[in-house]
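[step 3/7] inverse_fold.run input=structure_tokens len=198
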């Protein structure tokens, strides 16, 4: 039943006539560029961005539970989607960690929100990093890429005057391909500023 409800909502989005610019770019330019670059015989072979997950681990939450709530609120503001609280799966006595204890927050973005977040990340957020000279090219060997962010204050949605603690995060781009080269080309075409090889 839940899947049917999701499907019925899709036409309502398209009726408004709004398509995120990066989604439009993918359909109108990126697909054909990747077909040409890799010599794909059919459009179905062209890799696509499936989802973006944003994770924050809050190590200090073992001493202060309110930090998880703060992080949840901030990540919800950054992504435009309610962040979920993640809990510890086991006891770790050295870190005063008990199973089931809240230790982080997570958001999984798909569709329109995914493209909108990616556009803001590329156009606004990354250029705000001090002495920024591109992102590393290290993929996971399965066509996915994880970008580490050291401070949440680079996001313009965050009011720096209201910050209680600096949190880092990991942004993972999950693609439909298991080939790192194809995934790298896809994200490069979207505009992710990888460091140029010397």
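[step 3/7] decode complete -> sequence:
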């Amino acid at each position: 039943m839940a899947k049917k409800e999701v499907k019925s909502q899709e036409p309502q989005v398209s009726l408004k006539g709004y398509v995120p610019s990066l989604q439009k770019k993918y359909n109108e330019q990126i697909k054909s560029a990747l077909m040409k670059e890799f010599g794909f015989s059919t459009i179905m072979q062209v890799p696509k961005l499936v989802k973006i997950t944003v994770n924050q681990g809050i190590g200090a939450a073992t001493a202060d539970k309110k930090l998880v709530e703060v992080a949840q609120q901030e990540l919800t503001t950054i992504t435009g989607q309610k962040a979920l609280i993640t809990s510890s799966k086991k006891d770790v006595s050295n870190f005063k960690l008990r199973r089931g204890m809240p230790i982080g927050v997570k958001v999984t973005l798909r569709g329109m929100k995914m493209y909108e977040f990616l556009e803001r990340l590329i156009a606004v957020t990354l250029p705000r990093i001090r002495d920024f000279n591109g992102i590393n090219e290290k993929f996971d060997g399965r066509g996915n890429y994880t970008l580490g962010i050291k401070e949440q204050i680079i996001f313009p949605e965050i009011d720096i005057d209201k910050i209680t603690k600096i949190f880092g995060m990991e942004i993972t781009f999950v693609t439909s391909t298991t080939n790192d080269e194809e995934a790298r080309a896809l994200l490069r075409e979207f505009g992710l500023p990888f460091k140029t090889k010397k």
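[step 4/7] annotate
The chain has a mean pLDDT of 83.
The CA atoms of residues 6 and 26 lie 23 Å apart.
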